[in-house]
From TrEMBL:
NCBIfam families, per the entry: dctM
Family that this chain belongs to: Belongs to the TRAP transporter large permease family.
Lineage: Bacteria, Pseudomonadati, Pseudomonadota, Alphaproteobacteria, Rhodobacterales
Gene Ontology terms, MF aspect: transmembrane transporter activity
This protein's name: TRAP transporter large permease protein
Length: 423
């Protein structure tokens, strides 16, 4: 009964409107006090949890993506991809998806990816006759690639919690990320060919393609340098984030697309987002310490061992739980609350923690495009200035496709595991 009481107390705190970080910290502190343990446990534990070299990558990746966002890199990237595929059926939509995928390989942030590409793609797709719900759904879903395709901030945090290799987690996210882009792309082409009045853009000349590609080339090289350096062992993910931030600043300054005020706003936005993430990390660490003292992970593991029929049953139940709580919690909170509880059972069932990390992130991607707290929905709504119901209606097919990909990852785990263990 204790797990039920704790979950109920957490839900009540969240329903009061208390921020997630403070709800977790308050409940965790209360549980430690009720256990009769000294509060000195909390600061001692917190210092160790935040004093982690890997976590330095979070603010640096955020700074890099915000510099690129303020520097208009999304515009150059979209135009370059559009010049190559815009004349296809559904080509503007495909260009938006590919731009999301490329920018995801730089930013590590879903919201930034959606905002960067959406700002450019929404007006262009609207002008070409794409249905508003389809346009907004595509871009909201395309933005979710930012937390799956490496470098991914949620995968970094998962690696810290699970004590797994960040490099292997990054490699593991490549296959599912490409698979998602492929499925989304096929749907986009088929929708344009058979179900809409969307017009393709005129075929670009070779000179136009060359000019657009050269303009976007530094951004692509940025992704190549960061990811190539990580996989080649030249530098760690944290070092890659610092190199990426420096390169992003150099690119935008060289192109004269970043003003001093834009840079200050990028720094301010990065500090604000980092503060929110780290506060949630702190609150989740206190809560995690408390539930460990109450042996909640062991009790959950025992419940699964006793009442759930094997690995398949565990995956199905965990998926349903994550899809449900994703309606009310944002992705980072889900990650920090649920991973410490579920990880002992994952290891006990013999599931690969690298595979589970990617599968978990794919499911919390869905939380980014499901109301009432799907952040990507509100980002795209703000860009397009359309009612939220239009965006929600547009993401429904993409949610179904993401569930289909999740099923494929369960049936064929090598989609996730082949690269990290063969490269």
């Amino acid at each position: 009964m204790i797990p039920i009481y704790i979950v109920s107390a957490l839900v009540l705190l969240l329903l009061t409107g208390l921020p997630v970080a403070f709800a977790l910290a308050a409940l965790g502190t209360g549980l430690i006090v009720l256990k009769g343990l000294p509060l000195a446990l909390i600061p001692t534990n917190l210092f160790g949890s935040l004093n982690d070299f890997v976590l330095l990558a979070v603010p640096l990746f955020l700074l890099m993506s915000n510099i690129l966002l303020k520097g208009g890199v999304g515009r150059d990237l979209f135009r370059a991809v559009q010049s190559w595929v815009g004349h296809w059926p559904g080509g503007i939509g495909v260009a938006a998806l590919l731009s999301c995928g490329i920018f995801s390989a730089i930013s590590g942030s879903s919201v930034t990816t959606a905002a960067t590409v959406g700002t450019v793609a929404v007006p262009e797709m609207t002008k070409r006759g794409y249905k508003p719900s389809f346009t907004l759904g595509l871009l909201a879903a395309g933005g979710t690639l930012g937390i799956l395709i490496p470098p991914s901030i949620p995968l970094i945090v998962y690696g810290v919690i699970a004590e797994e290799s960040i490099g292997k987690l990054f490699l593991a996210g490549v296959g599912p990320g490409i698979l998602l882009i492929t499925v989304f792309g096929l749907y986009t082409v088929l929708s344009a060919a058979f179900g809409g009045n969307a017009a393709a853009s005129p075929r670009a000349s070779w000179s136009e393609r060359t000019e657009a590609t050269l303009r976007a080339l530094p951004t692509v090289l940025l992704a190549v340098v960061m990811l190539g350096g990580i996989y080649a062992g030249a530098f760690t993910p944290t070092e890659a984030s610092a190199i990426g931030a420096a390169m992003a600043l150099a690119i935008t300054v060289a192109q004269r697309s970043l003003s001093w005020s834009d840079f200050l706003r990028a720094v301010k936005d990065s500090v604000q987002t980092t503060t929110v993430i780290f506060l949630i990390v702190v609150g989740a660490k206190i809560f995690g310490q408390a539930i460990t003292l109450y042996q909640i992970p062991q009790q959950v593991a025992h419940i699964f061992d006793t009442h759930v029929p094997g690995t398949v049953g565990f995956i199905v139940i965990v998926s349903l739980i994550l899809l449900f709580i994703g309606l009310f919690l944002e992705s980072m909170s889900m990650l920090l609350i649920m991973v410490p509880v579920l990880l002992p059972t994952v290891l006990g069932l013999g599931l690969d923690p690298i595979w589970f990390g990617v599968y978990f992130v794919l499911l919390i991607e869905i939380a980014l495009i499901t109301p009432p707290v799907g952040l990507n929905l509100f980002v795209i709504q703000a860009i397009a200035n359309k009612p939220l119901v239009v965006v929600v209606r547009g993401v429904v097919p993409f949610v179904l496709m993401m569930l289909f990909v999740a099923a494929l990852l369960s049936l064929f785990p090598q989609i996730v595991l082949w690269l990290p263990f063969h490269l």
